[in-house]
Amino acid sequence: MDLLNRVQKLIEENRLLCRGDGVIVGCSGGPDSLCLLHLLLRLREPMELRLRVVHLEHGFRGQASEQDARFVESFCAEHEIDCRIYREDVKETARETGISWETAGREARYRRFFREREQLEWQMAAEEPQKKPCVRIAVAHNRNDQAETVLMHILRGTGLEGLKGMELHRADGVIRPLLTTDRGEIEAYCADMGLTPRYDHTNRETDCTRNRIRLELLPYIREHFNENVEEALCRLGRIAAESQQVIRAEAERIARTCAGDRRQLARLSDGLRHAAVRFLLKEKGLSADVSSVHLYQIDRLLSGPAASGQVVLPRGYRVAVSYDTVRWLGPEETGADVAAERDSEERDWKEWELSRHLTVRDTDWTEVGSPERLRSWPLCQACLDGDKIRTVEEERGEKLCLRFRKPGDFIRPLGSRGRKKMQDWMVDRKIPRQERDGLPLLCIGSEVVWIPGYGISENFKLENKSMHLIFVEFHQ
Prior knowledge:
Layout: H1 3-13, E1 22-26, H2 31-47, E2 50-57, H3 63-78, E3 82-87, H4 90-97, H5 101-127, E4 135-138, H6 143-156, H7 160-163, E5 174-175, H8 183-192, H9 209-224, H10 229-258, H11 262-267, H12 270-284, H13 292-303, E6 308-312, E7 318-322, E8 325-329, H14 338-342, H15 351-354, E9 358-363, H16 365-368, H17 371-375, E10 381-385, H18 386-396, E11 400-403, E12 410-411, E13 420-421, H19 422-428, H20 433-436, E14 441-444, E15 447-451, E16 455-456, E17 469-474
Parallel strand pairs: 1-2, 1-4, 2-3, 4-5
Antiparallel strand pairs: 6-7, 7-8, 9-17, 10-17, 11-14, 12-13, 14-15, 15-16
């Protein structure tokens, strides 16, 4: 079976592409990407594919890079393929961000790929509004790349997720139709089809890890240990992927039921907990850069004795615990605690502003109903003994007001004999630390009369002899 038929069969069996799909093809002009583009070009008519090539000129190799870009542009023009050529100073980006040239280049390419996918989706939707467009991103990783990736992950101390290597079809729409094809087959195909790909001389330099693995380590293993090392590494990747699929399904099921429950997460086996944590972080948007160090930090946070704490993760993500609750926070939520908002210049949380959320009115028993009815009201409403409130206001020379907590605040909890500091009350009620400064309190001076959502003070509750009532309601 020739390469075209094998790739077409792989595409159909794994549903990498369907008839009428759009395809963003990443093409550098090298043998792998030119082979992929040519195969998709041959499938364009029978599968009714909409092709668009994206090439990023990184500026790494001066004139040679420009020649690569012109080659891709010329090839696409000759075969009537939509083509987008971009230029970016990747070295400068790497210097500014502190990452490697290789990583900066990869991130720059994928940014362009995803942006072009969005544009092609909009274009296809405008042309055929009755259809929902589907656009994939095709990249040219092959079987040798897979073996190098698995080996590189092993050397870095990977887990099961890293052992599986690259996927044929990623959840974000990236597909790899050549992932099971050997590099030798790709070069033979280019020769048979009369293709003259460009060759990047930097692929022969050993200044990056992947090149050293390809040029030095794999040949050494092939000569001294296993002549079929690439096949062995790819087989390991397939087995790891199958095992990971089972673990991931179970971890996702568990994660959805106990995402916010600290005790349940802490009781899981290490493997399931780590898989669940990775899933929950991925749901928030952090799908990479989570190392074993981060996982063990989260383990200690979940099972440790501290009532509250947090683990700071890459790119501004956090995992925070407060008593038995776990919160999974994205970078946009880092500064979203009410306490922080209260002190920000953008939202000036003045105490008088809280009064807008409060309704206070004098009333009587006939208006509010029986004590039994009052006890069934939602906790954002309360009835207080108006005579007791007026007495305390006159004694202390202070008026009833709604505000946030201050040092020295206290309350006599309903049903208790003595008063308690608000700090102690919040700890007893397991109010998360990040929520305490944002809890509204109805007070007279330092005494808390009512806490919306939690209840009133024993000192101001209604009694059978109460004659004058005050109804309060908090509007969120």
